[in-house]
Amino acid sequence: MGGQLQDWFWLHNGETVKALAPSGPWSGCFGLSRQPLAPLREYFGSEVAWDMLWLNFLARWTFVPAVGSLVYTYAIALSFVQTGSFDSPFLPIAGGVLMVWGAAMLFFWVRLSDRYGARWREEVRITGRDGLNADATLDEVVDEELGEVRYAYPEWKHRLKRLAAILFLILPAAAVAAVAAGTLDARARIVEMEAFPRGALFAGLAAAAALFVVVRMVAFPWSRVMTHWENYTHRAGFQYALGARCFWFEAGAHLAPLLYMALVNAPLLSRFPPSGNDTVVDALVLQASVIFLAWWLAAAAITSLQQHRYAVAARRASGDGPLEGPDFSSEEQARRPPPPDTLWSNAWLSLQLVYAFVLGAICPLAPALLHAWVMQRLHWRRTSLLYTFRRGHPHAAPAPGFWGDGLQAVAVLALAVNIPLVLICSRMLSVWFPDVTLEERWGFLALGEVATAALATFLLARSLRPPPPDPDHE
Fold first, then answer.
1. Residue 394 predicted with pLDDT over 70
2. What pLDDT band is residue 472 in, cutting at 50, 70 and 90?
3. Which end of the chain has fewer CB atoms within 10 angstroms, the N or the C?
4. Rounded distance, CA 351 to CA 410, Å?
5. Would you kindly state where each structural domain of the chain is located, as residue ranges?
6. Residue 88 CB partners (closer than 8 Å, separation 6+)
7. How far is CA 141 from the centre of its chain?
8. Local confidence band at 374 (pLDDT 50, 70, 90 cut-offs)
9. In this predicted model, which residue has the larger pLDDT, 37 or 465?
10. Which of 109, 215, 223, 205 lies closest to 162 in space, CA to CA?
């Protein structure tokens, strides 16, 4: 193999790494200080810079909900001790605050991403072939006037493949739906055998395990295979499509059983309020909290194990180097692991956003655990890129990708779910507004859902707008 290139990678610069490293252990651990992004973008490229911008934004905007969720958790725990029900008078307040806070987050994130996108778009224009999907099979097209070679894939072929991929994705969607329905049947059987709340706890643990397996072991790999087969020309397009599919598979798998429980148990036939002591809120709080906590602990264990393995590999790469860390020699960096794919870690974070803002009123600890997760990942992401992994190729990205745009879906789902939860499922709205009738609740529900549909239509139309003309990537 002499004389042949076997591998190549970008080298870290020790002085630059020291300048980019956090100023102290867990600096900005409360998410109240934004790390400067210009040096990171120049060193790692705008793709990594978008990820850091997104994490910094979440760190700042999830701090207040995290503190509030701890207070709310205490309030509903006290309500359960005193009344035997999780349906606390603070539930309508929590649902309303999460809807407003999610909408505000979306507004400021859109402004922030538009501003940074305008700044960083020039970098995307001058990157040449770096934006191409290296795993795609592309045709060479020679410009007759300039003699330049461009790589593309016929649009009609891509459209046909996308249509076929959607049809093939029905298979994992059916598997996810079957498991979700199976968890409901299992819940009913377990609850019949075991007394409340022990039966509901067992059912929640079983549901969390089943959903984890079918989504992560079936839906995610199948989505990657189908998205790769579609042959996206650009790297950003491939990542966006794959991220969107994984997000909707996982969010749908976790939301569907809870929404079905709310529909079949909603206290509508006996008029409002419910005639019995138990409400649907009790079942929803217990199931959502148990499933989320079981899932979160499993995700935290897997993530910690992965990070430990990478840290061990980095220490082995350092060899007999200095005790304070790597020496940044080419030999030491060659022994480092390459930067990993961020699909799973982004999916972990996005599902926690769903639980925190869509289901936060019935899963009170979700915002606090989300903030803790964001801060841990922000610290790990920044330090590991510098000290644990090889320096990745500085890819340019025109936009934050689906994981940033996914906040639109979270904000819309928060409105669509919390409006009926507050108006119909909970009986505690009458504590604050005792004169509101059931017919008025239905009217407010219809008005709110129509407004939510209008917002979803506007956001979808905005996302489908063509990007600014780019003469270098026509």
1. yes
2. very low
3. N
4. 9
5. 27-473
6. 75, 76, 78, 79, 428
7. 37
8. very high
9. 37
10. 223
Cα gap 98→72, rounded to integer Å: 12
Peptide bond into 39 cis (omega under 30): no
Map residue 276 onto helix, strand or coil.
coil
The amino acid present at 111, given as its one-letter code, is R
Assign residue 454 a region (left: φ > 0; alpha: ψ between -120 and 50; beta: otherwise): alpha
- Please write the tens of the pLDDT for every residue from 113-160: 888 887 776 655 544 455 677 677 777 776 666 666 677 778 878 888
Place of tokens 């990745």: 392
Residue 473 has pLDDT above 50, yes or no: no
Q: Which residues of 382-420 are buried (b: 16+ CB within 10 A; e: fewer)?
A: bbbbbbbbbbbebbbbbbbbbbbbbbbbbbbbbbbbbbb
Task: Let me know: does 414 contact 99? Beta carbons within 8 Å.
Answer: yes
CB-neighbour burial class of residue 273 (10 A; exposed 0-12, middle 13-18, buried 19+): middle
Identity of the residue numbered 315: R
- Which helix (H) or strand (E) segment holds residue 227: the answer is helix 220-229
Measured CA to CA in angstroms, residue 223 lies from 142, 150, 156, 217, 342 at distances of 33, 28, 21, 11, 15
Q: Identify the H or E element spanning 318.
A: helix 280-318
CA distance 265 to 262: 5
Between the alpha carbon of residue 187 and those of residues 177, 181, 192, 197, 463, the distances in Å are 15, 10, 8, 12, 39
